[in-house]
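Hi, here's the filled form for the chain we discussed.

Project: internal
Contact: R.S.
Residues: 193
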Amino acid sequence: MASLLVGPFNNAGAVEAATGRVIQRLGRFDILVNAPQSELFQPASEVSDEAFSGLFERNVASVYRWSRAAGAHMSRQKSGRIITFISGLSRRGLVSGSAFSMKQAALDAMTQSLALEWAPAGVRVNGVGYGWVEPARRPLEEQQKERLVRFLPLRRKGHPDDLMGLLVYLASDASDFVTGQTIFVDGGAMAHA
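And the returned structure, exactly as it came back:
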């Protein structure tokens, strides 16, 4: 595998130009990791059209643009991996989370549809599903005082390191027979769904 690109949202022209630079510099495009990070948690009656549209642009449209551009190159080279980070809220509700959950569900459906479309060309499209993750590690005793943590079967929040093993697997040839899947690393939270 020759390349890895993690990109922000942008307009279609900028995304096409960036993917073209990868091809020009490295000769191929093997791995794309989409990691949309925008959140919106408000009661549905308080979510403005502007906030809703902005969340769609950052979390869905940008991922689609990057996947479409990379997938076209990968299809021509007959191989590639597209991996998108997708919240567990894609498959479960949360009070004041309807806008965010809806956008995450769109990423889950997009992953399945693109996997079906590009599988004949050797492109694998999958998702890393995540639960409650914190950037800093905190002592278990401190975490377990939180009501949310007591709900999680493993009784702790995740750390970005917990997601990396799955990301490496999905980016590698070891996952050659895996496509269209969102695999959750969430401390068991989806077992409650």
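Let me know if anything looks off before we file it.
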